[in-house]
Specification:
Elements: E1 12-13, E2 27-29, E3 34-37, E4 51-53, E5 58-61, E6 74-77, E7 82-86, E8 96-100, E9 105-108, E10 121-123, E11 128-129, E12 144-146
Parallel strand pairs: 1-3, 2-4, 3-5, 4-6, 5-7, 6-8, 7-9, 8-10, 9-11, 10-12
Length: 161
């Protein structure tokens, strides 16, 4: 299981847009709060942000495609929210260390995340994703993958066995 580091303070309301103006920020954890509303797309403009943890809140709406602009080897934790919609295709081109989008209401085909640049740890469990696993191309370097509790069908790709 992927795990996010947390703080001991509890915040409510939405994520303030001013975080996108903190250009030297490299670490942001707002986990285990009662934050609601959308994730500000301005967070994805932070070119030095390598650790983003927004899990275990009440965030809604889509995942901003700007988050795929975070630096290579970033860790992004968005689990345990109410995020919905498709995962932006821009994440297929992102090289990330960890993508944890588990326990949301994400829909559609997320197979594009597994090919392309390396993403060693991906957790998409407990969403509403639907795609044919037998047609997925996997990049080298994957160490951990959880796609359980979705609507994924098909067999294991021949290149894996």
């Amino acid at each position: 299981m992927l795990e996010c580091k947390t703080s001991h303070m509890t915040y409510t309301s939405s994520i303030p847009d001013f975080f996108g103006k903190l250009k030297n920020l490299d670490y942001l954890s707002l986990a285990l709060n009662s934050l609601s509303g959308p994730i500000p797309s301005s967070i994805g403009t932070l070119r030095g942000l390598t650790y983003l943890c927004l899990d275990r809140n009440k965030l809604t709406g889509p995942i901003p495609n700007t988050l795929a602009n975070l630096p290579p080897d970033s860790s992004i934790y968005l689990s345990h929210n109410n995020l919905s919609s498709l995962i932006p295709k821009s994440f297929g081109n992102m090289k990330a260390e960890i993508l944890d989008f588990s326990r949301n209401r994400l829909t559609g085909d997320a197979s594009f995340l597994f090919g392309g640049p390396s993403k060693p740890q991906i957790d998409l469990s407990r969403n509403l994703l639907e795609f044919d696993l037998s047609k997925v191309a996997f990049a080298r370097g994957m160490r951990s993958m959880d796609i359980s509790h979705n609507k994924i069908y098909g067999g294991i790709p021949s290149g894996i066995v």
